[in-house]
Amino acid sequence: MAGTIDARLAELGIELPVAAAPVANYVGYVQTGNLVFVSGQVTLKDGSPQYIGKLGDSISVEDGQAAARLCAINIIAQVKAACGGDLDRVQRVVKLGGFVNSTPDFTDQPKVINGASDLMVEVFADKGRHARAAVSAGSLPLGVSVEVEAVVEIA
C-alpha cells in the first residue's frame, strides 16, 4: 500500500528535502534495471553544508553519526525522486559507501557511518539492511565531515 514509508518517516519526525541538484558534471542518481545508484550525498540541509570539519579533530563521533544520518536523509530524497515519489517501491537497500573526513589516526569510521545504516533500518526495516564500506578520506567536498553513497533496489 502506497505511503507506508512516508508514514514511517513522519513517525520518525523526518521531512525529506527536495533531492539536491548536482553541482558538477554528474547526476544525483542513475537507474539501471531495478537498481538505483545514488551519487555521494553530503551534509547539506536547506542548501547549506553542516558538520564541517574532521573526525578525530573538531568533530565528535556523535556529531559524525548525526552527519551520516543527514547524508542518509538526502539519499532517501534521491531515491524518492528515482521512484517517482513512491518510496514503497524500495525492495532493498543493497549497499552504502561511507566516507569520513578524518585525521590519519582516527579509526572509528564504522561507528560514524552507523548513523546512516541505523536510519536505513529505522525507515525500511529489514529491507534497509545492507552491505557497507566505511573508509577514511583526507578531505571531502565543502569541508564536510561525511559523505555517503548508496545502491538501492526498487520495484
TrEMBL record:
It comes from the Bacteria. Residues 7-144 form the Endoribonuclease L-PSP/chorismate mutase-like domain. This is RidA family protein. The lineage of its organism: Bacteria, Pseudomonadati, Pseudomonadota, Alphaproteobacteria, Rhodospirillales.
